[in-house]
Write a structure and sequence with these properties.
Length: about 170
């Protein structure tokens, strides 16, 4: 368990630095920004303490908010995704799987991992950009930001997962 906590801490710092130093400055078509730090919430094991999942995702979101000048957006949305992850992993995982099932392409299989990642990333993008706009007067811009950010984030998640699973 101590090794896993150290690995989670390294992932926490690496994703925070990657988002703040590099990915926050990428804007595809002027609207899409990759939000790779969602990967942190996706990859928790099934039996990981739920309170620790919620607190660590909230802290990562809070630090992203501090460095991105988005007060409370990432923190609240990461907490929602962490809550959803604890239940969605049970829906995606095989019924006879181990209690300490790791959410990865190697363990779940690529299709189930992509399904889990896509659901959580789409939830994150839709809620994050809805809270950021805080209105629905420009639905097309909100939808464009959500969809382009979702696609960019999924490409990065799958790239990181392919490297991580080797």
């Amino acid at each position: 368990m101590k090794i896993e906590l150290i690995n989670r801490l390294v992932m926490f710092v690496a994703l925070l630095l990657a988002q703040v130093l590099i990915l926050n400055h990428v804007h595809l078509l002027g609207v899409g920004t990759p939000l790779l730090y969602v990967y942190f919430a996706i990859t928790f094991r099934r039996n990981f303490p739920k309170w620790l999942v919620l607190v660590s995702c909230f802290l990562l979101g809070l630090l992203i908010d501090v460095f991105s000048n988005t007060p409370g957006l990432a923190a609240s949305t990461m907490t929602l995704v962490a809550l959803a992850q604890t239940y969605l992993i049970d829906l995606v995982a095989p019924r006879d799987s181990a209690e300490d099932l790791e959410a990865s392409a190697k363990v779940l299989g690529l299709s189930k991992f992509v399904t889990l990642s896509a659901l959580l990333t789409l939830l994150y993008c839709l809620v994050f950009f809805a809270l950021e706009a805080f209105n629905f007067f420009d639905v097309l811009l909100w939808l464009a930001r959500s969809v382009i950010s979702f696609v960019l984030t999924m490409v990065l998640i799958l790239a990181v997962e392919s490297v991580r699973s080797r």
